[in-house]
Design goal:
It is a single chain. This protein is of the alpha+beta class and 410 residues long. Helices cover 48% and strands 11% of the residues. α7 packs antiparallel against α12 and α11 runs antiparallel to α12. The N terminus and C terminus are likely disordered.
Length: 410
């Protein structure tokens, strides 16, 4: 008799002596324990990706991607020579952007007739082998219209290069916070469309990916825009697998960008999906106001966007002070109230009272539906004003309606 059979018999002897209800509970507990072990193994495989010497790194990366991806990784493997050719030897004329991770170049893969964005990670920078692997795995295994598509990667020698689909309109930051004189500011409707799409990307990571993924670096520069200004989340090097089983959070070192991190994560290192919701609230507030979350060029009391906004959230008469001046007053009054209410809920200090990202998506979708209705109402009112001179009673009715709108949004 094998050892496995002996164990099975022994367990059966114990279970047969238990009441029926206890047996059911034991089976559920055992199943739950096995699932937790499986999830913990998956988590540790991400957390314990070790560093290798240059000579073995390429083989190591290939083995880890094959093992963790379980044969489902479809991203193409490029050679360094192929990507040099695609970017004309990483020519500065093809440079799209630069950050702490390294540089991003526009390239063209001739064999596919495809424009791409080539991110060459800085060998001396923050993002190392682990972050590189996490990004390859997440973007290879998870697919959604609001996540950037990974075309392939290169791990020749000490090179770590990621190849994405090319996003012709750059990042949200380019159109919102670093607007050049040649660019027109985003209108209100486009801002709401981008916010809704970005929230849908987070919703997919939090509630549809298995195991769930916490993005951990939600900010305007990581939201890329395609030719139709549809948003796609990019840069998943800091992403973490979310808590599983009975765990309420993931404990990890605090990473991300100052100002976007949720207060409980910044102070304790305890990461949850609600941490991403807070970061979404920060970016959404940036989209409404046109202000950076931290701007040292402003007066001291206005340098921190969230602290500046908190007292204004509580006074509807000051809502107009929070709108981006570049909109020049072209925004729906009701829509502004609803948008600021969403931002305020996401920015709650207590994580437990923040909404789920799926609730945020629902609220933003409702905002889009009401947009057309409100526009039609505004047009009807304009026609009425043109066709007849309003009496005092008509004026009173309009004022009453406005008062009712304000009251209903409390």
């Amino acid at each position: 008799m094998t050892l496995g059979k002996k164990k099975k018999m022994k367990m059966n002897c114990f279970t047969c002596c238990r009441p029926k209800e206890e047996n059911v509970h034991h089976k559920k507990t055992l199943k739950k324990s096995n699932q937790e072990k499986k999830n913990n193994k998956s988590q540790s495989s991400f957390d314990n990706l070790s560093f290798r010497t240059d000579s073995s790194r390429r083989k190591y990366i290939s083995e880890e991607i094959a093992k963790l991806g379980k044969g489902n990784v479809s991203a193409e493997i490029f050679t360094y020579l192929e990507l040099k050719l695609a970017t004309q030897n990483f020519d500065n004329d093809h440079l799209l952007g630069e950050g702490g991770f390294g540089r991003v170049y526009k390239g063209h893969i001739g064999s596919k007739n495809l424009d791409v964005a080539v991110k060459q990670l800085d060998r001396n920078g923050f993002q190392g082998t682990r972050e590189f692997l996490v990004e390859v795995l997440i973007l290879s295994l998870l697919h959604h219209p609001n996540l950037v598509n990974l075309v392939g990667y290169c791990s020749d020698g000490d090179q770590r290069i990621l190849v994405y689909e090319y996003m012709p309109n750059g990042s949200l930051e380019d159109h919102l916070l670093e607007l050049g004189p040649e660019k027109n500011p985003l209108d209100w409707d486009t801002r709401m469309k981008i916010a809704e799409g970005a929230a849908k990307g987070l919703e997919y990571l939090h509630e549809k990916a298995n195991p769930p993924v916490i993005y951990r670096d939600f900010k305007a520069s990581n939201i890329l825009l395609d030719e139709n200004l549809n948003p796609k989340l990019s840069d998943f090097g800091l992403a973490k697998l979310g808590p599983t089983g009975d765990k309420s959070h993931v404990s990890t070192r605090v990473m991300g960008t100052y100002g976007y991190c949720a207060p409980e994560y910044a102070s304790t290192g305890q990461l949850t999906a609600k941490s991403d919701v807070y970061s979404f609230g920060v970016v959404f507030l940036e989209m409404i106001t046109g202000r950076r979350v931290i701007d040292t060029s402003k007066p001291s009391e206005e340098q921190n966007l969230v602290l500046w906004a908190q007292p204004l959230f509580r006074n509807k008469k000051k809502f107009h002070l929070m709108v981006d001046p570049l909109l020049e007053g072209n925004y729906p009054r009701k829509g502004l109230c609803q948008a600021l209410a969403i931002a305020a809920m996401c920015l709650q200090q207590e994580a437990s009272v923040r909404p789920l990202i799926s609730d945020v998506v629902t609220a933003l979708a409702f905002l889009s539906v009401n947009k057309k209705k409100e526009k039609d109402e505004d047009e009807e009112e304009a026609v009425e004003d043109t066709c007849k001179t309003p009496s005092k009673s008509n004026t009173d009715n309009i004022e009453t309606n406005e008062a009712n709108v304000d009251t209903s949004k409390n």
